[in-house]
Input
Amino acid sequence: MSSETRRAQATQPTASLTERALPTSTTASQLTAVETTGSLRSAAKVLAEDTVDLHQRVSFQEWQERTNLRGRQAPQELLQEIADLGFAWRDIARMTRVSVPAVQKWRRAGGITGENRRHLASILALCDLITERYFVCDIASWFEMPISSLAPVTPIDLFSEGRHDLVLDHASGHSDSEQILTAYDPDWRDRYRSDFEVYKDHDGEMSIRPKDA
Output
């Protein structure tokens, strides 16, 4: 072998340094599986979001249709039915966004505006929907009950702030209480943070103590 041939061979890089190892069949199948499951996960997320949006729109439409039917009743009749369900006047006032004296005036002498008449009809329509669709008993006390032990937020609070969608989500059970609270108030954890906790004492009774105890 000539010296020129030897020098040429010496300057050529070896295959082990320049050639990249091709993925094995196992590695290739793993990559395919990761890509496929990732695509499925993304598609499932989009589908879930679309389904939630569709369910909320359908529920809203049903609520509006029921509201229109309830709106045919006289305002005093609507108000009396709401009271008969167990709602306090102060809660009716909050949910219709007026004062308690205004509600009492409607009851005695009428004079209600068309907008407030629809507010009353919408309350009854929502009660009808929740009672019939989700089998909630004693609907007034359900509206007064906090949706979680972590915060004193009730369905009345949600409705009063125009979040009927969250009231329906709570009634249906499609969203857990923390999701609903976060949608209602992203800062609810800081707002309702407590330095105390409830625990079961030695005698079996529930007691309260500081969290750092």
In short: DSSP finds twelve helices and two strands in the chain.
